[in-house]
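seq:
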Amino acid sequence: MVTGLLFTASALYVQTHISVDSGYGVLLPAFLLLGVGMGLVMSPMSTAAMNAVDPSKAGGASGILTMSRMVGGTFGVASFGALFAHLSSGRLEERLAGTGISAAQRDHIVENIGSGAGANRVTGLDPASAERVAGAVEESFIHALSSGMWLATGVALLGAVIAAVTIKDRAAQRDPASQAARGPAQPEAEPIAV
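struct:
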């Protein structure tokens, strides 16, 4: 899991360096590394979670694990989306200052930056202004995306640290040498007949 999270963090870090001029050649290695990293994380994470509970509680543990993944994914998307909206709208406001468009048009563009339709629906601009607005929208979008990837990179690195510290090595616990070092096993208590 730690290796997978480090691969994932590396892939996300590469995406912090994208720019308006970046091609798919920059993203493809990052996407491949991200896929390998997530593959190395998900299955061992499920195994570790299920091994940590008594077999009689496996159904409940599986449900909690699935719920945790869903809530975590939802919270992650919401956090990243809020950060993206804040960064992109702030950058776009800066870039649109002095372009000669009205405040209403500027507000419309800022509100619709994530949809890609904001600059296309602004009417009444001369071609030079329309080109400047389109460039500002594109640059603001990429700025927010690459800056937001720092949050994702940090979360992946934090996950790697938490996994390294908290996940116990089950193989070492079952090893006879480590059992001998811990002392003889205590016999299980016999049930009391009533």
